[in-house]
Every structure is written in C-alpha cells, then in structure tokens.
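Action item from last week, closing it out:
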Amino acid sequence: MLIVVRHGRTEANRAGELLGRRDPSLDETGIAQAAAAAAALPVGCRVISSPLARCRETAAVIDPDHDVDERLIELNYGDLEGTPVADVPRATWDAWRADNAWKPPAGESHDELAARVWSLLDELAAPAATSDIVLVSHVSPIKAAMAWALGVPISISWRSFVAQASILRIATGGPTPSLRSFNETAHVSHLD
C-alpha cells in the first residue's frame, strides 16, 4: 500500500498563503498533527519525505531515519509564492484552471508536477504491493497521487481538498492502482 500523508500545519498555512518552496517549520498545531498522523499509520514501514522542513519534521515523527525524494516537493509557485490565496487575481485562477501547462512566472505547471510525482509512484508501485510505503508530502503532489491512482488527468486536482496531516491510501497489488481512501482526517479531528 502507498500511504500518502500531508505535513502538519505551519504559520504560513494558518495565514492562508501560497506555500510552495519556502521552508517554514511546523507550528505547535502542526507538531500535534504530525504525532496524530504517525499514530494512525502502520509501524515499521519505509518512509519517504519531501526535502522541505515541514515534511521532514512530520516524517521524523513516523521514522527518524526516513528517506528524502525531491519529487515529493510542493509545486513551485514562482512569483506567487507567499501571496495570500484570497489575493490571487481571479484571472490568474481562471488561466491556471483552464490549462495544465500554465505556470506562474518563475514557477512550475501542474503537468510538470504530475510528471515528477507520477514517475516516483510508478517506481514504488511494485514494492508497495508487498510492503507499506509512507510518503510525506504537500497538497499538490498528494492531488497528483490521487489522479495517478484514478488514472485521470491532473486537472482533477482543482476538484479536491487536502487537509493538513490527512492520509491517502493507494493499493498497488492489482493490474491498476486502486484509491482506497482520500483525505482521512479522523485522527486529527480532536485538534481542530
């Protein structure tokens, strides 16, 4: 099983900012969310994290000796990095939603993000069929993992929400991946 976990909360998340490649640590709530997510996961599995601090801190609670893979890093928001979501112009959102190849200036497109995330998932599908593998990542790569599991375009990401410290599960033992759960949050509901 591939088990994909979103990192716990940071101050930038709490403030509602686009948070891509900036590297803040977890805030107090995020630390508690990471612990709750770890308690909801199987013990002793391989853990792979995005290289950013918020994911590495979450992954360290699950397994201090986790691996890191650059392909799990968040979407590069380029010039939009740090912009409050509410301040992104409507025309920008419309352009972004209309074209998977669109990217913010100095940023990354959803097509580029999907290519790197899907390559990792393709590599891990066979080993995850016999041993659980936990991936600790961010909103956009998690949405890309969901699209991969469903065999649909990355544009589906605009129609989903990924909560902090949520869990997604993908079975890989059959002829195609099978989405088993998305956005599990019961383990962190007491922290709201």
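Closing note: The longest strand covers residues 178-184.
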